[in-house]
Amino acid sequence: WRAPALRGGPAWEMVSREGALMLNNLVFAVATATVLLGTLFPLLAEVTGRQMTATKIICASAVFNAGLNLVLIPELGTLGAALATIIAMIVNLSALAIAVHRKLGINAFLLRPGR
Known about the structure:
Elements: H1 17-48, H2 51-76, H3 78-104
């Protein structure tokens, strides 16, 4: 009974509620992948005797996050802290994926098929 009253809205835009939802999904996907890879890689590194690689990556990521916080928080406040954390998580995920691929020979890249 409501179908004739419904109208189509504007086309999908990046700056909209849908765009914010997509960005939120991307942030959560990156966070989930970071936690998964950040949990599995140290375990795999310990089994293969490469604990220092995981330790260096995780410590470098924390230092990188602190540096970004120093730069972004004075300019953007809490948004700067959130952006710094997201950027540091993406860098951490990338570094862990590269380390897994190089050190253990496991393809951990999410967007690239295996060879």
